[in-house]
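> forwarded from #structure-qc
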């Protein structure tokens, strides 16, 4: 399973993402974590498309609310940050969650994502309700494609984080929840083996 999970945008090591693609160039960006904020969604989507195109990728948006995309023809699925519960709902409603999971297990695509796009892969989303507005009847089941929670936007020397994320990391440490923390610029990279922090 090939994964590139960052805290913010593509992080400080975008070449590692490119390397995972093994020459593949076809990519889609999923921005449904921002569906409740259409103006901000448009800004973030444009920024992510620009960043990925600068890496030499042929990239377009995939709005899972509209369906119709053949994910099997894609080399990279890039999932933007935003509200992790909104993202989880959109992936479940469209069936994109199962499609992505199947393609990842068959090693036919690379999954990349930042912030909520990374968090949604965990076994559970419990705790993230302290960071994102969960809405009514929130889905707490993650995609279960990694065996730990991801906490993005944490503090590091010289890098202020998001206080809610720092508190969540502290909560996970206290209750023994397996997790990995990321400050902006960092990413977790997996190429079928151990997960490496870069």
């Amino acid at each position: 399973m090939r994964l590139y999970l960052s805290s913010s945008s593509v992080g400080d090591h975008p070449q590692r993402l490119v390397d995972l693609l093994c020459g593949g160039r076809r990519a889609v960006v999923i921005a449904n974590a921002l569906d409740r904020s259409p103006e901000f969604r448009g800004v973030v989507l444009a920024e992510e498309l620009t960043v990925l195109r600068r890496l030499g990728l042929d990239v377009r948006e995939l709005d899972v609310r509209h369906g119709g995309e053949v994910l099997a023809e894609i080399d990279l699925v890039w999932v933007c940050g935003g509200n992790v519960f909104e993202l989880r709902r959109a992936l479940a409603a469209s069936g994109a969650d199962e499609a992505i999971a199947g393609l990842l297990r068959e090693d036919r695509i690379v999954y990349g994502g930042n912030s909520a796009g990374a968090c949604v892969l965990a076994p559970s989303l419990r705790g993230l309700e302290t960071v994102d507005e969960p809405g009514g009847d929130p889905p707490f089941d993650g995609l279960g494609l990694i065996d730990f929670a991801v906490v993005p936007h944490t503090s590091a020397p010289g890098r202020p984080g998001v206080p809610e994320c720092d508190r969540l990391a502290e909560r996970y440490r206290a209750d023994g929840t397996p997790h990995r923390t990321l400050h902006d610029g960092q990413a977790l990279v997996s190429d079928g083996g151990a997960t490496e922090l870069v």
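QC bot note: The longest strand covers residues 2-6. The chain has six helices and nine strands.
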